[in-house]
C-alpha cells in the first residue's frame, strides 16, 4: 500500500529530531524541518546553504566539524558529528548531526540526516568529567592538610627520577619531621595537632616556589619535598628555609623537652641517578639523614651531598 508523502512529512515534523536534506552539487538545503526554529530560533527559510550551517556553528567547532563532514561526504561515508550550534539570540545548543550519504550511479547525489538536541547529555557528560577530575584530585590529595599525599609522591618521584637519570641532572629530596609531635598531641589534643599539621603543610608549600617543586605529606607528622634539577647547595638552602619558617610560626609547644615552640628536623640528599641506581635506596638514605638529625639534637638539617648516608644504628627509631 502506498503512503501519501504528506504523511511521511507529518511524521517527520512531529518528532524532536530535525530532518534535513542538502543537494550535493549545489550544497543548498532542499529541506529542513520546522522544528529547527523552535530549537535554535532560525526559521527554516533562513537555512539556504551549507554555508549557513557552517556559520551558525561555534567558532571553536567550525573548521574541524566542517572539514570532517565534507571529507566523509566526498568519500560517500555515513557519519555523525557533535558541535555547538548558534541560536538566534546568541546562545549555543549542543547538536548531534547524523548524516546519510545518498548515491546515484556511484556518485554522491545528496545528504540527508537528522539533527538531535544533545545539550542535556553533554551537560551530564561534563558534570561526570568534572566529578571524575575531582575524585582523581582527591585520591592524590591528603585529606587533612590539602597538599599532595604519599600516593602522588610515589608517582612524582618515579617521573623525576627517570628525568634526572635521562638528562643527567641533579635530583634532591628533603624529608621533614615535626619534633616531639606525640608530646604535642598529648598536651594540646589531636584537634590542635591537626591544625598544626595544616599550618606546617602550608608553610612548606610556601617555601618551595618553583613550578616543579613537589611538597607532600609522607605520613603522620612527616613531610617530603622533591626538588628536580636542584643541586646539593640549593637543596640545603631550601631545607634551612623550611626549618626557619616552621620555627617562625612560633607555635607554642609546652610538651617539648627541648624548646617552648614547635620545631622540625630535616634530612636532605642529592643525586644524579646512575643507570643502575635504586630509587628506594636513595629515599632510604634521606630517611636515615632525617634520623641523624633527630639523634644529633633535633631542630636541624642533616645532609649528604650525592653520597649514601651512614648505616642506621641498631635499635628503635624515635621521632
TrEMBL record:
Q: What class of enzyme is it?
A: transferase
User: Which chemical reaction does it catalyze?
Assistant: 2 GTP = 3',3'-c-di-GMP + 2 diphosphate
Q: What InterPro entries does its record include?
A: Diguanylate_Cyclase, GGDEF_dom, Nucleotide_cyclase, PAC, PAS, PAS-assoc_C, PAS-like_dom_sf, PAS_fold_3
Q: Tell me the Gene3D superfamilies matching this sequence.
A: 3.30.70.270, PAS domain (3.30.450.20)
* Residues annotated as domain PAC: 79-130
The chain positions of domain GGDEF read 169-306
Biased composition of type Pro residues is found at 308-319
**Pfam families according to UniProt:** GGDEF, PAS_3
Region feature (Disordered) = 294-319
Q: Where is the PAS domain?
A: 4-64
Enzyme Commission code = 2.7.7.65
Protein name (database record): diguanylate cyclase
Amino acid at each position: 500500500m502506498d503512503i501519501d508523502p504528506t504523511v511521511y512529512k507529518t511524521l517527520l515534523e512531529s518528532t524532536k529530531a530535525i530532518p534535513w536534506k542538502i543537494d550535493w552539487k549545489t550544497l543548498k538545503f532542499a529541506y529542513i524541518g520546522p522544528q529547527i526554529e523552535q530549537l535554535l530560533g532560525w526559521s527554516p527559510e533562513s537555512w539556504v546553504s551549507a554555508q549557513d550551517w557552517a556559520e551558525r556553528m561555534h567558532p571553536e567547532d567550525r573548521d574541524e566539524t566542517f572539514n570532517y563532514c565534507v571529507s566523509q561526504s566526498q568519500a560517500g561515508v555515513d557519519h555523525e558529528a557533535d558541535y555547538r550550534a548558534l541560536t538566534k539570540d546568541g546562545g549555543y545548543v549542543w547538536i548531534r548531526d547524523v548524516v546519510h550519504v545518498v548515491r546515484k550511479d556511484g556518485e554522491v547525489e545528496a545528504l540527508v540526516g537528522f539533527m538531535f538536541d544533545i545539550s542535556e547529555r553533554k551537560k551530564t557528560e561534563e558534570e561526570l568529567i568534572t566529578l571524575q577530575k575531582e575524585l582523581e584530585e582527591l585520591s592524590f590529595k591528603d585529606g587533612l592538610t590539602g597538599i599532595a599525599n604519599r600516593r602522588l609522591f610515589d608517582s612524582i618521584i618515579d617521573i623525576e627520577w627517570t628525568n634526572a637519570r635521562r638528562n643527567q641532572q641533579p635530583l634532591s629530596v628533603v624529608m621533614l619531621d615535626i619534633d616531639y609531635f606525640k608530646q604535642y598531641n598529648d598536651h594540646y589534643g589531636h584537634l590542635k595537632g591537626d591544625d598544626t599539621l595544616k599550618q606546617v603543610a602550608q608553610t612548606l608549600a610556601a617555601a618551595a616556589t618553583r613550578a616543579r617543586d613537589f611538597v607532600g605529606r609522607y605520613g603522620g607528622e612527616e613531610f617530603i619535598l622533591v626538588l628536580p634539577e636542584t643541586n646539593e647547595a640549593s637543596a640545603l638552602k631550601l631545607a634551612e628555609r623550611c626549618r626557619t619558617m616552621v620555627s617562625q610560626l612560633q607555635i607554642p609547644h609546652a610538651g617539648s623537652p627541648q624548646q617552648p615552640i614547635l620545631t622540625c628536623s630535616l634530612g636532605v640528599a642529592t643525586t644524579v641517578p646512575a643507570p643502575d641506581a635504586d630509587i628506594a635506596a636513595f629515599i632510604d638514605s634521606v630517611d636515615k639523614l632525617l634520623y641523624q638529625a633527630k639523634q644529633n639534637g633535633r631542630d636541624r638539617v642533616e645532609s649528604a651531598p650525592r653520597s649514601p648516608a651512614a648505616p642506621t644504628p641498631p635499635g628503635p627509631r624515635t621521632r
